[in-house]
Design brief:
The complex is a heterodimer of chains A (about 120) and B (about 240). Chain A is mainly alpha-helical and about 120 residues long. Chain A contains six helices and three strands. The radius of gyration of chain A is 15 Å and the shape is globular. Classes of the chains: A mainly alpha (about 120), B mainly alpha (about 240). At the A-B interface, helix 2, helix 5, helix 6 and strand 2 of A face helix 1, strand 2, helix 7, helix 9 and helix 10 of B.
């Protein structure tokens, strides 16, 4: 079984410069990942094994090297490529911007803080 | 010297990104960009009126077309043209002088910002455009012609995109009188924007969540809508 501890996961996401609220959103998306992608994610997270397979022509390494994504965003994007390839591919071709805004307070107590099993 | 190194690195990154896209799916991406992200933007009458003014400003600034005009300019001319264009477009958007004074063309720092074309800061109402993108091909003699054209076009696209963010935020702050609008569902739209501005998701966190936000869909859709109107002038 490959298990990911919630607190450690949240801390590592926040180490990538993501806010606490953002990290919670990322974890929610990880829980909903395609089972195969989630399995790869668990191996990358716990054993530092980057997946080599292509999803519609895109690999994990391309997303982290060429698109400068952190590993979490890269896995979420691979998951998107698998579920909605047309939309995800189009998004990768779009110019990006950033809106800098004061973030509202949020209630952490409503978070699902259970650990994540990525592989039985 | 340091800035030149950063600029060269940016050129490399952009080249790599577009190279990857080009290898795998450039044609598909162009098609599905229109298909996936435009259909959710529907202009109301006010949007259309402003878009007509914006398109006219673009026609004045780029009589030969955006890419054709910018490509032949040197860096100084490009920056000057872009600065004047930014002021003109902000006026067409009916944005106040507090926004007009805060459109800056600057070098983005050596971090995740590299790949961003632009920024909008809600607290200061400041728009920043990435100078490295506007001068992309001038930093490298090896810059591919197609990539250069795409980047230059995207610089204008993202300027309109950021001005639309400024416009959205003025609506959120109620500085724009929504009673003037005759379009449908304007109140619903501003409510969505208000919520979105309080919980914005950056592309660094999740590309998908970033793309799916109401304010990003609207800004992207509006910029494409204006550019389509500008292109119509050449048909």
């Amino acid at each position: 079984m490959n298990l990911i501890k919630y607190t450690g996961l949240k801390r590592r996401i926040m180490d990538c410069g993501i806010t606490g609220r953002g990290a919670s959103r990322v974890i929610r998306q990880i829980r909903r990942m395609d089972p195969q992608i989630k399995k790869s994610f668990g191996r990358w997270y716990n054993y530092n094994e980057a997946p080599k397979e292509q999803i519609h022509g895109i690999t994990f390494d391309m997303l982290t090297d060429n698109f400068r994504m952190n590993g979490f965003n890269a896995f979420l994007t691979l998951d998107w490529l698998k579920k909605e390839p047309m939309e995800a591919k189009a998004a990768l071709g779009c110019a990006l911007d950033n809106v800098i805004t004061a973030e509202a307070e949020y209630d952490e107590t409503e978070e699902n803080t259970s650990d994540i099993i990525t592989e039985e | 010297m340091f800035l030149v190194e950063i600029a060269k690195a940016v050129v490399g990154i952009i080249g790599e990104i577009i190279g990857v896209l080009d290898c795998y799916f450039s044609a598909i991406a162009a098609q599905c960009s229109a298909y996936c992200f435009r259909y959710r933007f529907e202009p109301n009458e006010s949007d259309e009126a402003i878009a007509v003014n914006l398109a006219e400003s673009l026609n004045d600034a780029f009589p030969e077309g955006i890419v054709e005009t910018l490509r032949d300019m040197n860096g100084e001319e490009r920056l000057e043209t872009f600065t004047l264009l930014a002021e003109k477009l902000a006026l067409s958007f009916r944005l106040g002088t507090d926004v007009l004074e805060k459109i800056q063309i600057v070098e983005f720092a050596e971090n995740d910002d590299w790949i961003h074309y632009s920024k909008y800061k809600t607290e200061t109402h400041c728009i920043q455009m990435n100078k490295n993108m506007l001068l992309y091909d001038l930093y490298s003699m090896e810059a591919d012609e197609n990539v250069t054209d795409m980047v230059l076009y995207d610089c204008v696209r993202m300027l309109i995109h950021e001005l639309r963010h400024a416009y959205q935020y003025q609506a959120v702050l109620k500085n724009i009188n929504c009673q003037d609008y005759s379009g449908y569902d304007i109140k619903g739209r501003v409510a969505l924007w208000t919520k979105n501005y309080s919980e914005y998701i950056g592309s660094k966190e999740s590309l998908r969540a970033y793309m799916d936000q109401p304010i990003e869909i609207d800004a992207r859709g509006y910029a494409d809508y204006v550019l389509d109107k500008h292109e119509e002038g050449f048909r």
